[in-house]
Write a sequence for this structure.
């Protein structure tokens, strides 16, 4: 057993659901107890989805515990098949079903005889993998299933497209700024004169998976989701892949150069150098911004970085190489990918941290006292407690990480966004220090308690009433106080006790 | 009584495929209510993920709750449950020093049959902190029923004798205990309300501190404030030999009046001025009533407050198409059902269909056909319904807002009318933003 207050990556089934619900016309059925379908709430709230999340539960209750699911799962699959007519149903095990050890694969087999939809059982073990590993695996599983299917009915499309083309793999629902990144990524490929063959799994029909081999290569923008699929396609069809996140000017350049190499191997000679130069100079403002006089203030500033591997590594590089900021330590909670992470950023920071324990991170931040933190929502709150500014650069996500306005991390517009994020974090920190040095802003009069009707009439607040008043949230306390006093005066009460307070509340509308 | 009710009501039971919160969510309000407690949820990452996301910003405020996250070794019994729990509880004692540790059993502890009730007394003796076990799992319960399992377990811990022997000697009636967790200011309001009719409350379950649990002796009277507390009621009656006052719940001015009247009638007190009190409250609600009169509402059902809320809204002049509810205890809610029936008769509308263990998919079908003016539902359906032009109110807010007593009737209507008031404010919204597909 482990005492835990907070986790950076969710349980395995969340990963599977993120993949399944990202495809178009794919339905997931969870084998789970009542209340485990919290995924639907998150998607509906965080992404403000207008559609019903295509996830239902086949409920595990006392009866299932006693007698097994029997026909229940099969009936639920058959029912969804009729109601929603999905192309694919993904039966999703949860922590509960993994200890019940029911033969879910048998249910899948039996249900497939009857249903129009394809049915697969997500191959994830709750106790071995987390959300990110599970999503990586589920995506690979679905791709593999449909490639085999296409092979068997000879519908697989293996001839390459005329123009160089790419599959983008790993854009999912509830991903950190994924949908903004996708727009930017498509723009980048257009500039590089490369067609986008398929985007996975985002809003794609499973029927399109048979055309995957037509692309010249694959692009995995986020290491956490999609690497397994890219490796599968490499093995099966010898398709090269690029696992570089084009986040930051350096990464974008390496990204483009890698593509150039792939094209060269296919006897297409492209030189992106001129393009990269113009973009860095005119489209991305971040290189010039770092040279501008204002940014000299950032020299000698310290930062720490924490997040998933993709974002933590990219931001560490940007801080060190592109903005000249001293990164004291940089870390990730993706323990399973720590080797790559260490290699990637060792030279850009003093120390590499691999952990999924938020208390350890909190203590480290407190100990190293950076000028700014770049982390997840958790680090933002640690920063609040310690009075250190924080820019959020990675999931776990929060409703604030689904902005309405265009905020990519990837590509040239991404470099602008990131530069703003970094710079704003530091200036706010500077302002705070200056204020402290000079003793704060001019004092605002009566800042604590909004004025009451004090001098007109003597109003006495009883002890209980005062206590009750102090329980009311501060931001409306003043209004309540004023309204109650007005009410007391209007009704000629000289003392405000609990009775008067409640009476006031009842009578004053709105 | 139950039979009589059955003849006039239509009770249906569907498939139980509906969205609700896991009952472990009760931790989020109970740890705040019981100030010296610590809640240890013994479960998996799934439980932790739910709490972490459902509790939102509260999670960053160093709450007095934690997960005992089960690992593979715990599941396959390679690790010893007793030693593992001992290790964690000693750490909790060292870091937080609570007066009580609640163990919340989950689906996983049920399935692997971890003997929490057996381990707790031994460990309690060894580390010298009371350990209360509540099985608030999703196999058996929905959302607010979590509180019921905790209070049922706590009612066993209430002292039998008062140490100072000084309590309620001046009360004119037998001791009365109220059960149900309410914010401090609402329990104050209800206490004050009852004191107007010379009724003294001997204690609340739960109290603000575990160390201040009320004395409960044989023959005491108990009354519930919430409709989801049937196990607690049963435990108080059977184990503690108390007498349950079966009353409607003090939600809405009509409910509050009926609740007080029932308590008074048990103690042979005539509640003078109660009717005028109720009328005054209705009078204060006029502006809200204008907004909802004649409008229709559909409860999808997820928190067991549905019967009481529907009864109040019918009294407000609304039509109720369907009352979805996770679980319906016809005995514990008997008086509330009777009041619902009476209200329907007086308001001259048909008694709405009560759907236990609803099926959300079928309900969406019915909603599409009925096009109600308001759907009270969980967050999983709220945005998709809004996108189809159906007004929704998030049901969970009713469990977290102040809705009890005369004083807070306004708050219920404030919630109910919010989407309708939003509609009048958003004049520029075009129908073109809505979709028609379900």
């Amino acid at each position: 057993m482990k005492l835990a207050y907070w986790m950076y990556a969710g349980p395995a089934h969340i990963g599977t659901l993120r993949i399944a619900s990202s495809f178009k016309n794919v339905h997931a059925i969870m084998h789970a107890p009542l209340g485990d379908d919290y995924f639907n709430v998150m998607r509906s709230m965080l992404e403000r989805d207008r559609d019903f999340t295509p996830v239902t539960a086949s409920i595990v209750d006392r009866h299932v515990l006693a007698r097994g699911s029997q026909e229940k799962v099969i009936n639920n699959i058959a029912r969804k098949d009729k109601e929603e007519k999905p192309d694919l149903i993904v039966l999703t095990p949860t922590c509960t079903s993994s200890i019940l050890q029911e033969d879910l694969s048998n249910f899948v087999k039996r249900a497939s005889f009857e249903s129009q939809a394809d049915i697969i059982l997500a191959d994830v073990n709750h106790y071995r993998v987390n959300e990110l590993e599970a999503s990586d695996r589920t995506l690979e599983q679905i791709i593999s299933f449909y490639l085999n299917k296409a092979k068997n009915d000879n519908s697989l499309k293996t001839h390459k497209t005329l123009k160089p083309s790419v599959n983008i793999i790993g854009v999912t629902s509830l991903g950190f700024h994924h949908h903004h990144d996708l727009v930017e990524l498509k723009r980048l490929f257009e500039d590089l004169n490369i067609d986008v063959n398929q985007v996975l799994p985002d809003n794609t029909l499973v029927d399109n998976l048979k055309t995957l081999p037509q692309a010249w290569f694959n692009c995995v923008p986020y290491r956490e989701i999609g690497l397994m699929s890219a490796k599968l396609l490499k093995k099966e069809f010898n398709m090269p892949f690029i696992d570089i996140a084009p986040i930051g000017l350096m990464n974008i350049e390496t990204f483009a150069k890698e593509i150039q190499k792939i094209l060269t191997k296919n006897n297409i000679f492209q030189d992106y150098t001129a393009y990269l130069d113009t973009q860095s100079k005119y489209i991305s403002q971040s290189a010039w911004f770092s040279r501008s006089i204002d940014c000299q203030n950032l020299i000698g500033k310290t930062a720490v970085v924490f997040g998933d591997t993709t974002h933590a590594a990219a931001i560490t590089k940007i801080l060190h190489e592109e903005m000249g900021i001293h990164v004291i330590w940089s870390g990730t909670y993706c323990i399973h990918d720590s080797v790559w992470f260490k290699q990637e950023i060792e030279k850009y920071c003093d120390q590499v941290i691999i952990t999924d324990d938020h208390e350890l991170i909190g203590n480290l931040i407190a100990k190293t006292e950076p000028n700014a933190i770049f982390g997840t929502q958790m680090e933002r709150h640690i920063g609040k407690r310690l009075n250190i500014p924080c820019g959020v650069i990675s999931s776990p996500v929060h409703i604030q990480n689904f902005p309405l306005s265009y905020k990519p991390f990837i590509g040239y517009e991404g470099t602008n966004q990131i530069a703003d994020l970094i710079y704003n974090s530091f200036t706010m920190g500077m302002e705070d220090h200056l204020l402290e040095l000079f003793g704060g802003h001019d004092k605002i009069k009566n800042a604590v308690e909004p004025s009451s009707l004090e001098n007109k009439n003597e109003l006495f607040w009883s002890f209980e009433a005062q206590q009750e008043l102090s329980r009311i949230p501060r931001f409306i306390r003043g209004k309540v106080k004023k309204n109650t006093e007005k009410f007391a005066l209007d009704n000629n009460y000289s003392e405000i006790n609990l009775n008067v307070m409640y009476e006031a509340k009842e009578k004053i509308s709105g | 009584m139950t039979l009589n009710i059955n003849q006039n009501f239509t009770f249906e039971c569907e498939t139980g495929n509906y969205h609700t919160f896991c009952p472990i969510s009760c931790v989020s309000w109970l740890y705040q209510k019981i100030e010296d407690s610590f809640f240890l949820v013994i479960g998996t990452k799934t439980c932790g993920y739910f709490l972490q996301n459902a509790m939102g910003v509260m999670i960053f405020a160093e709450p007095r709750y934690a997960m005992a996250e089960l690992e593979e070794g715990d599941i396959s019994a390679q690790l010893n449950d007793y030693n593992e729990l001992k290790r964690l509880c000693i750490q909790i004692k060292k870091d937080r020093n609570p007066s009580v540790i609640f163990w919340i059993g989950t689906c996983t502890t049920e399935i692997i049959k971890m003997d929490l009730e057996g381990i707790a007394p031994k460990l309690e003796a060894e580390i010298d902190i009371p350990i209360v076990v509540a099985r608030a799992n999703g196999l058996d319960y929905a959302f607010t029923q979590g509180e019921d399992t905790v209070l049922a377990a706590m009612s066993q811990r209430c002292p039998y004798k008062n140490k100072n022997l000084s309590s309620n000697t001046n009360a004119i009636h037998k001791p009365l205990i109220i059960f149900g967790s309410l914010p401090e200011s609402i329990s104050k309001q209800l206490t004050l309300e009852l004191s107007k009719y010379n009724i003294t409350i001997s204690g609340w379950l739960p109290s603000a501190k575990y160390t201040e649990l009320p004395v409960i002796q044989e023959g005491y009277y108990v009354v519930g404030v919430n409709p989801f507390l049937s196990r607690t009621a049963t435990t108080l009656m059977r184990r503690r030999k108390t007498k349950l006052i079966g009353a409607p719940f003090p939600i809405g001015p009509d409910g509050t009046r009926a609740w007080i009247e029932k308590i008074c009638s048990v103690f042979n007190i005539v509640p003078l001025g109660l009717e005028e009190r109720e009328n005054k409250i209705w009078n204060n609600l006029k502006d809200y009533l204008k907004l909802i009169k004649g409008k229709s509402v559909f409860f999808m059902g997820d928190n067991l407050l549905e019967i009481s809320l529907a009864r109040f809204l019918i009294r407000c002049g609304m039509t109720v198409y369907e009352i979805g509810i996770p679980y319906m205890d016809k005995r514990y809610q008997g008086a509330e059902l009777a009041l619902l029936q009476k209200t329907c008769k007086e308001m001259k509308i048909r008694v709405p269909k009560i759907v236990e263990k609803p099926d959300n998919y079928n309900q969406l079908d019915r909603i599409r056909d009925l096009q109600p003016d308001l759907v009270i539902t969980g967050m999983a359906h709220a945005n998709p319904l809004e996108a189809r032009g159906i007004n929704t109110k998030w049901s969970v807010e009713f469990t977290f807002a102040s809705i009890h007593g005369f004083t807070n009737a306004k708050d219920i209507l404030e919630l109910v009318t919010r989407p309708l008031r939003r509609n009048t404010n958003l004049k520029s919204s075009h129908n073109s933003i809505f979709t028609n597909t379900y």
About this structure: Chain A touches chain B through 61 residues (CB under 8 Å). The radius of gyration of chain A is 28 Å. Residues 443-455 of chain A have pLDDT under 50 and may be disordered. The longest helix of chain A spans residues 411-437.
